[in-house]
Amino acid sequence: MRDADRRKLYSRGRFIKKARAAGKLTDLWNPEKLFPPGYEYEWERNSVVLLFGIGVGLSLQFFGRLYQAAEVLYEYTDRRRVLREDAIAASFGHLVTGHWGLYVPLVLFLTAMMIYHYSYYYRVTRSIYLMRRLPRRGVVFKSCVLGPLTGLGMAAVVLALLYLLYYGIYVLVIPGECLP
User: How does 156-178 read in b/e, with b if 16+ C-beta sit within 10 Å?
Assistant: First the structure.
């Protein structure tokens, strides 16, 4: 490897190896470190993405509620749409009521995966006793909990951004004098 190539791959004080498959860089994010050793995490990751996608897809009903809330503010006179004088829009909290319930299956699935990861040491690898004797005591707990907690954290961040987007759209659609 030439020095110029080596300098390109040097990042944040550590050397990043070039992956052989598809020319991607490795060690940027290594999901194997989040799960028990030898655990096939692809199924779990795909299930989390599916459950999260279903929750996001069902949360799009917000736009139907927003449309109804905006239409209540107007009346039609002489084929013109006119804002009612005493109109007050439904609050944003009222429009998104019940949306957190759409993500309960995701939370329950990730909680069940924490328990499954622990049972993985007993049933599949049968290495729980070896793992308990390691010098660092938290290795078992960390490998059982870190993957699902990372999934929960990423879902919470994406949901917060999604609801900020929903709130921005709410403020744009509802006239300022009608905001509660």
Answer: eeebeebbeebeeebeeebeeeb
